[in-house]
Amino acid sequence: MELMEKTVRVELGERSYDVVIGPGLLQQAGARIAPLLNRRRVVVVSDENVAALHLQALRAGLARADIEMVALALPPGESTKGWEQFSRTVEWLLEQKVERGDVVVAFGGGVIGDLVGFAAAVLRRGVRFVQIPTSLLAQVDSSVGGKTGINAPQGKNLIGAFHQPSLVLADTAVLGTLTARDFLAGYGEVVKYGMLGDADFFAWLEKNGPILASGDMAARVEAVTRSVQMKADIVARDETEQGDRALLNLGHTFCHALEAATGYSDRLLHGEGVAIGCALAFELSARLGLCSQEDPSRVRAHLKDMGMKTDLADIPGSLPDAETLVELMGQDKKVVAGQLKFILARGIGQSFVTGDVPPEVVLSVLKDALTQ
Ligand code: GLY
């Protein structure tokens, strides 16, 4: 099993860190985290679902290196990512007497990683933290790159900070406990990397996606590693999203409008919205004459092969009209001086950022997508 382990270095000068990927890392968590510690004690924040499934394994993995652990389990779900659970977490960390030199562990999916990372960023003006991501989405995206934060009533992720973790342990064995729906939603972010910057990876996923989804561990490790390597390269070039990092938002402008239209509910998971959004971004690119019509067709064919939500019709319930969806896009964080930014593509693996998209073309793509 250990042979499968991979390490990706996120190169950020004195804030550089490793992302270790492979099965069985929970069991080795103590040995991995020990070099970071001033004293043999960590505080762990997770959610109730993750705690019920995996906290014992983490506790045992830490105990093997004589590391003591105290844990807080927050309620699961996106609504946890707000002021209430955030202040509860910060106060709990203070009650646990976490010191400047201690390490906080974020043990869960994207909600926990973002919230706990933000708590670590502000606690005593910043303490170190370790990400142990348990969802595929968190392993390939949110645990890497230091974006942390919580949601505001005005929108998602509007309150936060860049705070890089000191270590990321992505235990791919833990992915075995995800529901098929959650796994495929995370796969939306995996396939995004191929579409945005690596046509060979996209072709690899076309071939290996099905075995990866059915549990092949070597394929899972490979897919997580290639995704994290791409993200690490982009973050090293542009940590605070002044340029290239925006490429990671391929599909997200459409996705955020669809998430808002479905009330951030169970009707559409974030990764599902990303997949549909990527298909729409390629359709928009083809309409603008940037890529051939074959590219959006190939994207949709792969998403459908994987049994993923691909079209607007795959979202249960009714959606607002195209005009309303465009309006919802206007509330996106990526609006600069009133102009909406899109990530478009000249082909699979060749994306770029632009503000120069005629709104009537976006409208026509959405109108057609709504009648499909
Ligand atoms: N999830 C996009 C980013 O980290 O920039």
Describe the protein.
The structure is a single chain. By secondary structure, the chain is an alpha/beta fold. Strand 1 (6-10) and strand 2 form a beta hairpin. The strands form 4 sheets. The chain has a 7-stranded mixed sheet with strand order 1-2-9-6-5-3-4, with helices on both faces. It has a two-stranded antiparallel sheet with strand order 7-8. A two-stranded antiparallel sheet has the order 10-11. Helix 5 runs parallel beside helix 6. The mean pLDDT is 95. It is built from 13 helices and 13 strands. It starts with 5 loop residues before the first strand and ends with a helix. It has 2 domains: 2-177, Rossmann fold, CATH 3.40.50.1970; 180-371, Dehydroquinate synthase-like - alpha domain (Dehydroquinate synthase-like, alpha domain, Up-down Bundle). The protein is 45% helix and 18% strand.
Offer a few descriptive terms.
372 residues, alpha/beta, Rossmann fold, Dehydroquinate synthase-like, alpha domain, 2 domains, seven-stranded mixed beta sheet, two-stranded antiparallel ribbon, 13 strands, 45% helix, binds glycine
Quaternary state of the chains: single chain
Unreliable parts: none
Indicate the overall shape: globular
CATH class wording of the largest domain: Mainly Alpha
Radius of gyration: 20 Å
Please bin the fraction of helical residues: 40-55%
What average pLDDT do the residues reach? 95
Fold blueprint:
Layout: E1 6-10, E2 17-22, H1 29-33, E3 41-47, H2 48-63, E4 68-74, H3 83-95, E5 103-108, H4 110-122, E6 128-133, H5 136-142, E7 147-152, E8 155-162, E9 167-171, H6 180-197, H7 199-213, H8 217-237, H9 252-261, H10 270-287, H11 294-305, H12 322-329, E10 335-336, E11 339-340, E12 342-345, E13 351-354, H13 359-371
Parallel strand pairs: 2-9, 3-4, 3-5, 5-6, 6-9
Antiparallel strand pairs: 1-2, 7-8, 10-11, 12-13
Helix pairs in contact: 3-4, 5-6, 5-8, 6-7, 6-8, 6-10, 7-8, 9-10, 9-12, 10-11, 10-13, 12-13
Glycine is lined by residues 141, 145, 147, 245, 248.
